[in-house]
Amino acid sequence: MSFKFDDAVVEEYSAMVSQISNEYGKKYQMIDRNDISQEVWMWFVTHPRKLSNWKAENGEDTKTVDRLVAKSLRNAAQAFCSKEKAAVEGYNPSDMFFYRKEFVKMLLPAVILDDWSRLENVLSIGGKTSTPPAEANDWMAYMADIQKALDKLSDSERQLITEFYGNDLDGATLHETVAPEKSTPRAAMMQANRALNKMVKALGGFPTYRDEDDEEKVDDLQEL
Asked: What's the pLDDT tens digit per position in 180-218?
């Protein structure tokens, strides 16, 4: 199935492109919105197979297709704006640091419980044993950032984070002791996951994913 970048695509996605361009134009006011819009439209040109593949895979489920397209367009806008902002403000985009979920989860026990053992074990397995984490200023800066993000959560969200990611409660115990109002253990774990996503967003948001045209689906950065 082929899908050309033509008037039909423009008509179908014009409103979405305009919305995303305005969204990132407000966030990155030093960048011309027309430039953002052009870069967002370029996603369709540089990924000629994705749209047709998603339409073929999802059939009449247009909401799923729109969700995948919107996520890719936002990724394109974020990547472009980050690069342009770096050029305007005089730093290298490679210097940007994103708090990935796995990194935040790795540090949570040290932040919440002052328990460095799991972090030291992870670093030891990776061969990074030269400096104890508690003595390194960069780790302390990471911890301070994560503590600030944790403080922005509600009491119930902090409890979920503490028990699920700090104390390693399993789903069943989390459901029974912390979130009995949820229908299932999985629902309780998903609530904890949403709280973690909220922390990552408070820390600057998720990094852009690598968007290749031969991938079948957009990576889900917010999976449990």
From this structure: 999 999 999 999 999 999 998 888 766 655 555 544 333
198 neighbors 157 (Cβ within 8 angstroms): yes
Total domains in the fold of the chain: 2
Using only the alpha carbons of the chain, give its radius of gyration: 21
In percent, the amount of the chain with pLDDT more than 70 equals 75
Together in a domain, 79 and 109: no
> Are 60 and 122 in the same domain?
no
187 token code pair: 């629902």
Of residues 63, 99, 116, the one with CA closest to residue 201 = 99
Q: Residue 209 carries which DSSP code?
A: P
Do 135 and 198 fall into the same domain? yes
Each residue's pLDDT tens digit, 66-75: 999 998 999 8
Cα separation, 179 vs 153, in Å, equals: 16
